[in-house]
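Quick one: structure tokens for this chain, please?
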Amino acid sequence: MTSFHIVLVEPQIPQNTGNIGRLCVATDCVLHLIHPLGFSTNQKELKRAGLDYWQHLQVYEWEHLEAFWQHYPLNMQHFFFSTKAQKLHFSADFSQGGFLYFGREDAGLNAQILKNYAHQTYKLPMKRGIRSINLATSVSAALYEGLRQSRFYEQF
């Protein structure tokens, strides 16, 4: 059973997406790519970062976020990540798994999403004055906290 779905909204850097894809294979997660993408999924940089794991990845592409939400309706198991959030990800209840959303490397998630789902939006702790950390690093930190809480790692 898949515990987490990683949702990348309009990712721009193929190497980040490749690394996240590899992480998803290693943790038995599903990767969702929301268009428009800043790269082609056939790009060699994407495949190189994903190494030989890409062929084992459960990855789906969606034309836009609304199409994704039609298939996976929003509920409390959808968690949004932003440096603009007020709550740390340690306070989220990931015990049942869920959908972890991350925005573009250069802009993050849309401001309207952050406003509409503020109660489901979290940030990673960072020192003041630091704008952000790498997307793949952020996904990894959030996902491993989710795995710790949910104990889905025990199936590995």
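The chain has a mean pLDDT of 91.
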